[in-house]
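Thread: Defensin-like protein 206, structure

OP (GT): Posting the sequence first so everyone is looking at the same thing. Length is 82 residues per the record. Can we get the structure tokens written out before standup tomorrow? I want them in the notebook alongside the other entries.
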Amino acid sequence: MAKNLNCVSFTVLLVVLLMASTEILKTEAQTCSTFLDECGPEPFLGTNADCFNCCKYTYGCPPACKGLVEGSDKHCHCYQNP
């Protein structure tokens, strides 16, 4: 009986942590979702972190809040808060 209770408690804890972490990601996606502009060469051969650094350098940190390498032709897209 105690093993079952521990297993249920652990499962509930995992579900709560999963829900909390996805809500954090969902909040970030909502706050930084407006397309700003493209940055860097085409195709952009760097990572998402390199893309974000390009966005910060080109547009500044307050407007640019995220940089993602997207599309089949690998463009660096910069995003800002709505």
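GT: Both are above now. Quick notes for whoever picks this up: Residues 36 and 82 are 10 Å apart (CA to CA). Strands lie at 34-39, 66-70, 75-80.
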